[in-house]
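hey so i finally got around to running the thing on that chain from the lab meeting. sorry it took forever, my laptop kept dying and i had to restart like 3 times. anyway pasting the input first so we r on the same page abt which one it is
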Amino acid sequence: MRYQWALMEGGAPSISPSGAAYNHLSTAYNALSSTATVLDSGLVTGSGVPDVAPHKWGTLQLTLPANFEKADYLRLTIQDQTGHVVDIKTYPIKDPAVKTKSLLKALQLPQKVVNTDRKWHIAQTPDHYEVTGGLHSFSYRFNAKTGVLEQVQKNGREIPFNNGPVLCDGQAMVKSFTLQNKQDSIVLEAVFEKKSDLQKLIWTIYPDGVLKMEAGYFPHQYDYDFMGLSFNFPENLVTGVRRMGAGPYRVWKNRMEGVKLGNWENAYNNTITGENVPSMVYPEFKGYFANLYWMQLQTKVMPITVLCGSEDVFLRLYTPSLLKSPTIRPPNFQQERSLLCMR
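ok and heres what got predicted. didnt touch it at all, straight out
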């Protein structure tokens, strides 16, 4: 057997209109191939390869460079004596929190310089907080009773990413929702009842329009079909997705094997295996995708970019369509327009 290691860098979303993949997929992209970059590579040789008898275990000894922690993950390719790839395994080096921190630094986000000519304007009613302005003329409207993001606009044009975070199951019982105008940001924070399943919600708006959400929930009921937070975005406006995480295929709770870390791109499709033949396109666009690091949804409006700083988060892209008369119908969170990050 031949073992080759590679240190991989998972890339970053494009946030500038001049970027090569700002709101469209890469030219001649392949949904089955990761576009992650190889930083360094080598072979496991000599004493690094254990002499293992059939049905026994051994340990590979990899000689990695001293700066291996600069990589996002390790890829191990296993080949037989003919050069045929038997398997590819990936192992994270950076967790999502570290990756998100490095991405923000590389993208120079968020910009915290206060520009006196571009200050935020705050409007408050009994039902809403509306924060408008900043360096790039964003507008965010929040429900003052629930803390839910209700509307996003840029330069007066609505971006229909809204109605979140909403718990997939359980109750969010808000006691209060307040706004603080700080020197370099606007902070909105919810306080919850003791019996609430959602226990933490903090929004931070930076001068450049970057919106940060911190949320935490604790299920009081032992058994839930779903635990997670949902947002809305119209499915008919979606054209594709770029993301770093496990792929290229979706997963189910009892089908977690076979995916690997990488930088993946996929055009929108509505494949229903066994039904919409011959127009089936793989990998499926809809479904649950494991180990989210970042995601950029390509749309007919503008890209929606999400950086994830928590481990073991699943990205849910809408509701997977099923056969008209399926013998097995897995449960799905019934909110058709929802994007969902769940743990």
